[in-house]
Amino acid sequence: MRDLTQSKHLFSESKKVIPGGVNSPVRAFKDVGLDPVLIEHGEGAYLFDIDGNGYIDYVMSWGPLILGHADQELVDSLKDAIGKGSSFGAPTQLELELAQLIVNAVSSIDKVRMVNSGTEAVMTAIRLARGYTGRNKIIKMVGCYHGHSDSLLVDAGSGPATLAIPGSPGVPPAFAAETITVPFNDLEGLSNAFDKYGEDIAAVILEPIPANMGVILPELGYLDGIREICDKYESLLIFDEVITGFRVSYGGAQQLYGIKPDITCLGKIIGGGLPVAAYGGRKDIMDFIAPDGPVYQAGTLSGNPLAMTAGIVTLKRLSKETNYDILKEKTNYLVSNLERLAIEKGLEVQFNSVTALFTQFLSVDKKPVNFSESANTDRELFNKFFKGMLERGIYMAPSPFEAVFLSLAHKKEDLDKTLEVYRDVIKSI
C-alpha cells in the first residue's frame, strides 16, 4: 500500500476551511470512497504527491496540459513574462498575438474575446446569442456540460451526474424554464423542439464531441442536421469546444466534421495550464459585444500577460500538424491494447476515442449496453477499477463520466506501464 499520510492529514485540514476540502467537487474522490491525494508537483506525464508517490497522469489538469507538466519552453516563457508584470488591466501585444493564432486556426472565428474560464465563455456566448437574436430560449443536449452558470446546469453531465445532483439548488425555476433539453444524437427530438418553440430559440449549444458524459461521438449527419435546423429558424449554433478545441485537431471538432458554428467557446488548451478561455465567432455577431455593441461583458484579469504567454507557446507548438498524428498514434496504441486486454479477461467494455481523448465504459452486464447513454457504466465496478489503478500508480479521473487525456509528454514506456497495470487490475476485479 502507498503511504498517503501527509495527503490524508492535509485533506482533513483543508475540509476545515474549504467546502468539501476542494475547490472543484469531483477532486474530492467522494464518489469512489477515497480521500484525494494532494499533489506536490508534475513533470512531463507524471504527477507526484506530497508523500513522494509518483503517478502516470491521464487527467492532465482535466485537459489543458497537452504539452505535459512543467514543459520547459512554457516554464521559461512564463519566468520571462512574470518579470515584466503579472497583470496590467490594459491592452497588450500578447492579447493580439494569441487572438491572431486562434482566428487563423478556427475558420468560423472572425473575432475572439478572452475570458478566464470556460463557464465565463459559455455564459457570455449565451448572453450574446440572446442579445443578437432578440430571443430568450436556448436548447442544450442532455449530458453536455457547459460550466456552472445558472441556465446551463440542467442535465449537465459529469459533475452533477457523478455527485447525483440533477441540477442545483439556487437556480431559479424561471432561469431553467428558458432552457430546453433534448437528447444528444437525436435530430427528431431537436426538430420537435423547434416546431414548438422555434420563434423564440436564440441558440442551440452543444459539445460537438461530448466529453463530460464520457466521450460520445456524433452520428453521421447529426451535426449537419443541427446546422440546417438552426439556419431554417435563424437561430445561432454554438459549439462548446472548451475540451475539444486544439485537442482533437488544431481547428477543433468543427474542423474534423466540416461544420461552421456561429459562436465557438474555447478553453483549457488555449491557456496551456493557466486560467484562460475565449468565445469567438462571425464578425457581425461579435460586434454586438461592448464596447462596439450593446451586450456587456468584462473581466479584470481577462487577457492577462501570463495566461496569454502560456497560450501562445502552446498553440505555436501545436501548429505543427504532425503533433496530432503523434497524439492519435499514442491514443490508438493505448486504446487498442486496453480493449484487447479487456476482451481477453471477459470484461464487458467499450472504448470511444478521438485523437488525444477517450473514455472506457465498463459494465458487468452480458447483454448489449447502450453506450450512447454513459449512465450504463457500472459504478461499483468503476470504483474498484479506479482504486486499483491509483494504488498501482495510474492517476485517472475519479468519475466514470470523465475523459482520459493524453499529452505529447506521454512516452511509449508510460503507455506500456499503463497496460501492464491495467492487466493486473482487471484481473483483480
How would you describe this protein?
- Helix 2 packs antiparallel against helix 11, helix 3 packs parallel to helix 11 and helix 7 packs parallel to helix 8.
- It is globular, with a radius of gyration of 21 Å.
- It has 429 residues and is of the alpha/beta class.
- Strand 1 and strand 2 form a beta hairpin.
Tell me the layout of helices and strands.
Elements: H1 5-17, E1 39-43, E2 46-49, E3 54-57, H2 72-82, H3 93-105, E4 111-115, H4 118-133, E5 137-141, H5 158-162, H6 173-176, E6 179-182, H7 187-197, E7 201-206, H8 222-233, E8 236-241, H9 253-257, E9 263-267, E10 277-281, H10 283-286, H11 305-318, H12 322-344, E11 348-354, E12 357-363, H13 379-391, E13 394-395, E14 404-405, H14 412-428
Parallel strand pairs: 3-13, 5-6, 5-7, 7-8, 8-9
Antiparallel strand pairs: 1-2, 2-3, 4-10, 9-10, 11-12, 12-14
Span of the ends, CA to CA:
17 Å
- Number of helical segments with 4 or more residues: 14
Main beta sheet strand tally, sense and closure: 7 strands, mixed
Structural class: alpha/beta
Mean pLDDT: 91
Taken in chain order, the helices and strands follow as HEEEHHEHEHHEHEHEHEEHHHEEHEEH
Share in helix: 25-40%
Strand content: 15-25%
Categorize the overall geometry: globular
Q: How many strands in all?
A: 14
Radius of gyration: 21 Å
Low-confidence stretches: 156-166, 366-374
Strand arrangement, major sheet: 4-10-9-8-7-5-6
Gist of the model:
Helix content is 38%, strand content 16%.
